[in-house]
Amino acid sequence: MSVIVDLAMFPVDKGESLSPYVSRAVKIIRESGLAHKFGPMGTSIEGSWPEVMDVVSRCFEELSRDCHRIYMTMKMDYKKDAQGRLTGKIQSVEKKLQA
Length: 99
Known about the structure:
By secondary structure, this protein is of the alpha+beta class. It has a single domain, classed as 2-Layer Sandwich (Alpha-Beta Plaits), CATH 3.30.70.930. The protein has helices at 19-31, 49-64, 85-98, and strands at 2-11, 35-39, 42-47, 70-79. The protein is globular, with a radius of gyration of 15 Å.
């Protein structure tokens, strides 16, 4: 089973520069050991449902320690009996572009 979550999470009560808060969430994602891809507008994470949702919860808990308002978006894609889609989906499109 593979769940890919595209996650964006940041406080809206901490001013203009939010990278100190975003980096706290990204650190949790990196330390989780799950496949992930960090980007300018969010981070994609791949794993099983419980693994991915645990990481999302831990990111939220970390920011909620000192943030009173948090904005979060999540997009999810689930596919039974699949793995390695974080890179595989991109490779599939790239292959078709080269044809």
